[in-house]
Amino acid sequence: MTATINSKPVITPKPEDLATRFVVVRAGEYRRGLRLEEIFWRALKDVAAGAGLSLGAFVRAVEQASDGGGNATSRLRVLCMGCLMDKLLSVQNVANRGLANSLVQASPSPTFALATDRRIVSYNQSFLNLIQARLSIESSSAMARNLRLSLDLQIVELIDALRLKDNMPVGTGFVIGVDNQRFRGRVNAVLTPVIGQAVIICYVLPD
């Protein structure tokens, strides 16, 4: 089975994740030796911390809840995967394309959101007011059909710059045109935390 992460195929696990390690966990007088892959040790520590327990106390609680039945390492692997899948589902419920639109609409300043193909996927009323104040447009539907936008930075360059700066805002110029009319301005751009295709939110700066 082939999965993809950031559009890159993932066919085999990382060797460092696949390596197994034997660890004796402790909680008071409780001792338990376990052999797990490194990726599960990392996940188990995260799940235990989320439960407010030490690693040893968490393993003991899991073992007590199962009354000692079943394979302890298998139970812990399944538990880790279940917890991480629940987290992923929670993130997916929030980090969808609708989040970008919500952030755009919440902004009091002219704001729009761009997809990686430079399509404007969302804009607020302040942005519409700005365009109508700068350009002579018959209607908003005419604007939607004929509006063209370009950034001084290429989209790929902008995304790379944002990731390099841990998504701190990156400024760039833009040109918006409708038919033969154009005006120039500047924006502060940030990446929206959405799953799937990147979305860039652009906050128009005052002249």
From TrEMBL:
Residues 34-81 form the Ribbon-helix-helix domain. InterPro entries: RHH_dom, RHH_sf. It holds the Pfam family RHH_4. This is Ribbon-helix-helix domain-containing protein.
